[in-house]
Every structure is written in structure tokens, then in C-alpha cells.
From TrEMBL:
Alphabetized PROSITE patterns for the sequence: HTH_LYTTR
GO molecular function, one term: DNA binding
Phylogenetic placement of the source organism: Bacteria, Pseudomonadati, Spirochaetota, Spirochaetia, Spirochaetales
UniProt keyword Transcription, yes or no: yes
Top-level taxon in the UniProt lineage: Bacteria
Assigned keywords, A-Z: Cytoplasm, DNA-binding, Transcription, Transcription regulation
All residue ranges annotated as the HTH LytTR-type domain in the record: 59-152
Entry-linked Gene3D superfamilies: LytTr DNA-binding domain
Keyword Membrane: no
Entries under InterPro entries matching the protein: LytR-like, LytTR_DNA-bd_dom
Protein name: LytTR family transcriptional regulator
Record Pfam families: LytTR
Length: 153
């Protein structure tokens, strides 16, 4: 198998597999590459699932929200408790240089990578639809920052 490394200014590395046909080995290789990740302490935060502490990677978090005086991190599978306030999560994200997160309301911060679309209603209400189907309303107060963030992406 021929391999090649090309250096480019990308945010994260990627892999392209050239093959004449998709075989079982190629499918396994693809799955391995997709699941491969080198975690370092700056790439995850701790969340709680009952009594268990779970490592959460930036790309696994769809949104962080507060409800009933607690802060939760929503992933594709679970909703986990964070032992932080929303402003503390924002500070932590800033320290770790996780630039994918944006505050959309007083109670919600979303990961831009997991936004499927912005739904605009006739009444002027803007709703963010995430890839997992979650719908979250956007506060007009945060629209300017959201527009700036989207234009950067």
C-alpha cells in the first residue's frame, strides 16, 4: 500500500483513501481511522454520568445548556452533568482554544460543527437545529456574535 503525507494549513488532519473498490479491509481501515484519536489533557473535559466521571472531547459535545440550576453537556448518546457554570465553561473553552463553541442564549452554548441549519420563522424567531435533531432558540442579543462566528468558519 502506498502512503503519502502532505503538509497543509488545516485545522485538523484528514485522510483520503484511494481504492479501486471498497473491500472489507478498506471498510475496517476507514472505521479505524475515524475512531482514532490522540487525546491530550487540553482536548477533553470531565462530565458526570451519575457517579461516573466521563471524558468529553470537544467534537463530541453538541451543546452545553443550563436547566434547573445545573449545567449539562449534550452528546450524540447522552446528556451529562458538568460541574461548572456556563460562564466557567466559556472561560475553559477559551483557555483550551476550542473555537467551535458559541453562546446563542443565556442558557445555551452550541458547537458550530454540529449545527445542521438555522431555521428562520416569519415572526423573527431564529432556531438552531443540531445534527442530532435538537432545536434551540437563539436570543437576538447574541445574533451579532453568531454572525461573526459563522462568517469566520
Amino acid at each position: 500500500m502506498k502512503t503519502e503525507i502532505v503538509l497543509e494549513k488545516l485545522r485538523e488532519p484528514g485522510c483520503i483513501i484511494y481504492t479501486p473498490k471498497v473491500s472489507q479491509e478498506i471498510s475496517l481501515l476507514r472505521e479505524y481511522i475515524e475512531n482514532f484519536s490522540v487525546y491530550n489533557p487540553n482536548e477533553y473535559i470531565s462530565a458526570w454520568d451519575g457517579d461516573y466521571c466521563v471524558k468529553l472531547h470537544e467534537k463530541d459535545i453538541y451543546r452545553v445548556f443550563s436547566y434547573d440550576k445545573k449545567v449539562y453537556a449534550e452528546t450524540i448518546k447522552d446528556t451529562l452533568v458538568l460541574k461548572l457554570r456556563l460562564y466557567q465553561f466559556e472561560e475553559l473553552v477559551s483557555e483550551k482554544k476550542w473555537d467551535r463553541f458559541i453562546r446563542i442564549s443565556n442558557t445555551d452554548i452550541v458547537n458550530i460543527e454540529h449545527v445542521e441549519k438555522f431555521d428562520l420563522s416569519f415572526t423573527g424567531i431564529i432556531t438552531v437545529v443540531l445534527k442530532n435533531g435538537t432545536r434551540v432558540q437563539v436570543s437576538r442579543r447574541y445574533m451579532k456574535k453568531i454572525k461573526e462566528k459563522i462568517l469566520k468558519c
